[in-house]
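User: I've been going back and forth on whether these two constructs are worth ordering. Before I decide, could you fold them both?

Assistant: Sure. I'll take them in the order you sent them. The first construct and its structure tokens:
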Amino acid sequence: MDRLGWTVGQTYIAYGVHFGIRSNSPAIMHRLIETLPAGAKESKRHRSDTIFSFLHGGNDSNVHSRIKRFNIIYRNGDIVGKSVGNVDKLIATLESDIHFCIAELAENHFFIHAGVVEWNGRGILIPARSQRGKSTLVRKMIEAGATLYSDEYAVLDSTGRVFPFPRPIHIRDAKGNITRISAAELGARIGNKPITSDLILFSEYNPGAVWSPRPISRGKAILKVLANCVSVRRKPRPLLKVINKVVGPAERVVSPRGEAEEVVEWCRRRIYR
């Protein structure tokens, strides 16, 4: 690995996690830096917990060429993905892996797979894994006037407050291709202070489903949130305490949904009543 000709690299710190990124291409390195989470800073420490690498072979996606120049991404010494061409898709994959690593190793914060917005002073938490429709729902909410906090992770401190983890919203098509839409493109505001989770929506997209929200007990809600936590195996006890603080005082509802608009309208009526 260390003999592959890395020409640019830097160590960063985010949420207490030291990690390195490197490439053989300054242009690729610049794009990788742009994907780092808000608040990531350069670190002077030479050793890092994890090293992410992008070996750039070229932008040519002609798979029929006799000479195939692969682009390869690594996490430490393990190959995370490779392709001929498809630079954008590999950068998106490495971005997700970097964010997951931070979520997994963060010491003083807890990461939940969830969308988060603030609307009329109320925090709305939408726990769900990737490709369950939460990014689409977050997008529709901010288009309706909500403030963006995250479409991927809810970042909690020990008191249960949710901190901003903004990034471009990722919308996947049927083939798995990702379109990145910035908050600026949507005319959205980005949260800049911690909030509480006043409303928790347990809802995943199901074509043809009817949005029919019903209350969910505290115990079941805790289990559902824990199922979407990243570090549940590393620090289960402190995590459970935090989730109790999040779930206890919140309004909690569960229902599958069809199109996002009916959920957005329900939320609008709920928060402005």
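The second construct, handled the same way:
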Amino acid sequence: MDAFEEISTHETVWRFETDFLTSNWTCIWGRGCKGIGEVENTEDGKGCCSVGAELDGEDEALNLSANAAFIPLSLFQFHEEAARGGVFRDDQRNATRVVDGACIFLNRPGFAGGAGCALHLASTHFEESPIDWKPSVCWQLPIKVDWEEGPGNTEIATVRRWSRKDWGDDGEPMAWCCTEGSDAYVGDQRVIDSLADELTAIAGQAVLVELRQRLR
């Protein structure tokens, strides 16, 4: 059974999956990532971007649209496609478009401006945080936060690793999931350190400080 460390604030009870946060998981995109397709593939560079990115409400859609407009063209392989048809899957603006089998923002291997997420590359170019540029589901991965109502006016937030089932119907045919097995558990830091910025953005600095003290 997974173990969780609980930290309570006035409004939220945070539950952290300790085995994952103290593990040495690291993203191995471009270094053996097998993607989330039906067949393992370490060459196409699509990683977890094959199905595009689900967006968390209109505010996130507005932020994405604004950021997309500022990506230098040299860092955005599909900028012409974005100019013609936009960056959203449809008029609901709740997901990014998929172009040639992956998110429109994913520059493919061999692209002169650099492979990987154009939003991420642009944030680095402007010396800003990728957290401010990318959809939340992207910068949080492989962290998953489950929210539920607690007693009184509180909420319970469970912070854990993504699993295959979290992808819904898309998860069933996946040949590989990076949080399963041992392939991605090769980092030189604990997740609580390597993903400190992401955890801070999720739970706040005070909670992260307390969590680190407990997990020393």
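Notes on the second construct follow. The helical segments are 18-21, 58-70, 79-85, 118-125, 136-140, 191-194, 196-203, 205-214. DSSP finds eight helices and eight strands in the chain.
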